[in-house]
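Hey everyone, long-time lurker, first post.

I ran two proteins through the pipeline my lab uses and got sequence/structure pairs for each. Pasting them in order. The first:
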Amino acid sequence: MASLTSAQRERFYEYCNENRSVCSEQVVQNFFKDEQNIKILLTAIDGEPAGQKELEDRFRRHYFRVRFIKYLASTIKYCTIDQMRLNQKTDSRNQLIFDRPCSEEGDGTVGEMLLGFQNLTNVEPLITEPSQFHASFLNDHLANAFAALSPKQQLIATLCYALCYQDNEIAEMIGVSPQAICKTRNLALQKLRLAMPERRCN
């Protein structure tokens, strides 16, 4: 599409100066950002009926589009506000169980009470060393087999099966490759399995 000529542009500026009240409107300025609309305006000024009709149709579509976008923006805005208000009401009426007060006097919440009970409960100490892992075995055959493992095998088995570390995490701790960890772990597991009586009978 060819751009406006200098003569067309000058005629358009003259029209805007003569009709400042109309051309100062934002919707009109946006409409004439399309140079094709300026060309159609000039043909309408020259008295061509087809140009006048096309200009009216194009501006009507443009104006509808502007109004529709404003309507959508307004609808989204007020729907968002309504939803926020609804969420606030829901949060105030339906508190999470942990956030509910234990009594009408407001002496602490249910969550605080449960956490207090948890702190009073005796918790088994966390296994962090192979010796602790070895002491936790209830099966004598398994305990003896674990004791027969090399220190490295015991450490890797403890980190893997007691503390649930992945091979790559253990490898980073010890300073070896994940493949080496996998090989050592599988060898230790094989020795532990062979130590079980049902395995020896097969």
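...and the second, right after it:
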Amino acid sequence: MSLCQTISILLILSLVAAANCLASGQSSEPDQLAHSVMDVFLNHCAKCHDPQHGKIHGGFDHVLDLKRMVSEAIFITPNHPEQSILFDVIVTGDMPRKSPRLPERQIDMIRRWIQSGAPTPKNLKTAQDHSSPKIAAELETRYRNRFVVWLGKFHPSIVHFPIGLITGAAIAELLKMVIGSSWLGGAARFCMGTGAIVGVLATLLGWANAGFWSGEDLLTTLHRWLGTVTAGLSITAFILSERFHRRPSPQRRKAYRMGLFISAGLVLITGFLGGAIVYGLYHLAW
């Protein structure tokens, strides 16, 4: 099997895996939404409204007991966020008290959770379950890894490096094909290697930034998985680059260039999706 066939098969398998993960994520969206809402409530509300995490304010002590909140129909009205008191105080910025208003992404997540019927996470069903040491330990592990969340904040700044480097590698290789200057090959090799390595770091930080499972929209899911596929393919292209530059041959050059140009195209698409998450899908409109 030729190197070109190998890289084509790897690309197809990566895209199939991403599609399967995307489909799986969509099928479990209600439960993921519930977990993500628990994450928001734990980080922003539990210190005032959960007995295990802080002092109780306003007599409301079960913000992490989603099932109880829904059953009481006082704070949450399933399928109707506009009729839900809890959602109203979050939208207006009255809660969390003495803190900035929640980001729009988290507010939209809570809105979609209520619109979907305010489901309860499968592994957190009752207040008694929540108060057990086992579940408390699970919450600490799952929701309170502040260091990972903090690292994720560097994703937007780090991710620009692989975008620029891998795109630069593709441009340098194209110019080499046209002009024939040997130094362009060295530039492409350096940019490809550095971009691929930093791309893996940026991908890991992206997962830390968005969460390792969350109730997210389709755009974020596409960005997440396409970025992961792109990072893997970029490493493959880097390996092909080194194989070609150390033992040149027409076949290896063709495989390397194919991997490089596909990686450059995917990194630009992934970058566009990342911008769309922040600025909207039509952020490049004229």
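Reply from user beta_strand_b:
Welcome! Quick read of the second one: The chain has two domains: 29-144, 151-279. The first helix runs from residue 3 to 27.
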